[in-house]
Structure formats: structure tokens, C-alpha cells
Amino acid sequence: VVAIVGGAAGADALAAALTAHRPWAVLDARLRRESTGHPSASGIDVAGVIDLAAACAACGLPLLALSSDLVFDGAKGAPYLESDPVAPAEPVGSMHVALEAAIAAAHPGSLVVRTG
Fold first, then answer.
1. Which of 36, 58, 81, 84 sits a CA distance of 20 to 30 A from 69?
2. What are the tens digits of pLDDT across the range 53-63?
3. Nearest CA to 16 among 51, 63, 49, 65?
4. How many whole angstroms from its chain centre is CA 21?
5. In what order do the strands lie in the sheet with 111-115?
6. By mean pLDDT, which of 13-17, 43-47, 107-111 is the weakest?
7. Residue 27's closest CA among 53, 54, 9, 8?
8. What is the pLDDT of residue 33?
9. Prediction pTM value
10. Which among 43, 44, 63 has a CA at the least distance from the CA of 105?
11. 4: CB partners within 8 A, 6+ apart
12. What is the SS3 assignment for the chain?
């Protein structure tokens, strides 16, 4: 297990660290939670998430990133599927939608898990 924490390292520095440590996969578990239990958009390092996705893609490493079920508004009345369109009801949900799109653009082979 290797922890790469914080800072404005950038994708190149992250790729160098990943190359040096040679993990078989990367888990980005930086989803922050406030005392209310809801993710805090201000606690998410957006540039860092994108840089990590790009570095993993450059190194050919699988990336598992965490998002939130707040990308949905809850109006469906049934469990959501991956194919359901997102419809965030809160700004935090909108932030997660944007992060999911940025991760997918930087690393098309990544897996994003929406936690509840």
C-alpha cells in the first residue's frame, strides 16, 4: 500500500511516484464528509483528482474513484442504475457529476463508484 497525499504535485509528479512504487491499481478515496454525513465539495481537491486520473492513465494503471449518490435527486422512487441520467438536487451533487466527467475524460478506463 502506497499513500500519495495532497499537494500540488501535478500529473507528471504523480506519474513519477506511481512508476517508482509500481502499484497494480489505485484507489482514490478522498471523498470528504461533513458532520452532516454529506460530501463537502469544498473538501475535494478537484485538480488533484484530475491529475491522479491522468497519471494513472499515463501509467496504464486501473483507477477506482469514489463519487456520491448525490448525483441523483432521489425522485425516481426505485434504485438507480448506472445508466440512469444524473439529476443532482444539490451543489455537492453537481460537483460530483463534474468530477465523474473529468475523471472519465482523463482516464476512460477508470471505475467510479457512487457511494450512498
1. 58
2. 999 999 999 99
3. 51
4. 21
5. 26-28, 63-68, 111-115
6. 43-47
7. 53
8. 46
9. 0.79
10. 63
11. 14, 17, 18, 52
12. CCCCCCCCCHHHHHHHHHHHHCCCCEEECCCCECCCCCECHHHCCHHHHHHHHHHHHHHCCCEEEEEEHHHCCCCCCCCCCCCCCCCCCCHHHHHHHHHHHHHHHHCCCCEEEEEC
Q: How many residues does the chain have?
A: 116
pLDDT tens-digit profile of 70-87?
A: 999 999 999 999 899 999
Partners of 46 in beta bridges: none
What does the block give as the cell for 50?
484530475
Block residue for cell numbers 507528471: 12
Which triple of cell numbers denotes residue 97? Answer: 457529476
pLDDT at 35: 35
Mean pLDDT, to the nearest integer, of 88-108? 91
CA dist 78 to 16, 34, 88, 94, Å? 44, 26, 16, 21
